[in-house]
């Protein structure tokens, strides 16, 4: 039994009497299916030849770079939030492998319906870092005109919608978009994300059932990070796994090591290919862990132990992939230092440029509401523009 499965989620923070019943899966790492655990990359950086999809050096280095950038970006944004320079942030620390691998596995024409920790897929798919950071600030550089709270990024140019803080509604939306693609007979595949908590919401069950019945070309991915804010997985479901829930709806499902970027890439690639070929939906449970807080508003020490966090930190997806690259002679200390300096400089430059921007222009209040602005709103906009601007406060912020 793998270390991931040997200790029930959150068990170290609760008594033995609170532990879930002894029905945890017994499949060995490397085995697939909805009760096993598909894995490729071992903790020491070596590969399982039986499951290795033989990815290119270039793709593996790209994955490492993207994970590294996200790790550094999250750290910088959380620092800015603690300094009062941005209002809110939700980091992805510890579970970067799944969104990065998925972004590398899909086509530019595919659509993404994310949850809280998949916004970074936009960057992997070519969205500008400066514009991404501007959304956290909600200022004049923000495509959303400051109307959406931070960590709810979206961009039409990379086919990614914004998620809702209400848990689960993006799932029927993702299935609906996939069904529309099928009706239009194009090759688009839609990926819908959720956390483990969303699988307890009615939207999850509606989406899964509709997707299966109408064979929508979609891939539903659950990032099971073991905590729905402060609720552990074993307190919200008695299922042996989350992936097994796909059986009831006739949706092929697989459970994958979500801290193994290679295994996730393989699972998502296979599911996307199946959907694109007309095979219908798939459901993937990516077993991972949220190392940091749920968001900048959360204190995880109130509900889980540091011992549990430390145990999962040893399975850090960045470290595991780094060990593999080092073992293949593709990464050494000098290259690592150079990459970190380059990425930190890129992030610092984006933050400096964005933070110097002012708020969205006040006339943008009337944008993106109607295709053609009605007369009464045109009159209101003209009146607003005739009025003097309010004086700036707080150094322009």
Automatic annotation (TrEMBL):
Its cofactor is thiamine diphosphate. Residues 1-43 are annotated as: Disordered. It comes from the Bacteria. It is an enzyme of class 1 (oxidoreductase). SUPFAM superfamilies: Thiamin diphosphate-binding fold (THDP-binding) (SSF52518). Residues 8-18 have a biased composition (Low complexity). Keywords: Oxidoreductase, Thiamine pyrophosphate. Residues 70-360 form the Dehydrogenase E1 component domain. The branched-chain alpha-keto dehydrogenase complex catalyzes the overall conversion of alpha-keto acids to acyl-CoA and CO(2). It contains multiple copies of three enzymatic components: branched-chain alpha-keto acid decarboxylase (E1), lipoamide acyltransferase (E2) and lipoamide dehydrogenase (E3). Belongs to the BCKDHA family. This is 2-oxoisovalerate dehydrogenase subunit alpha.
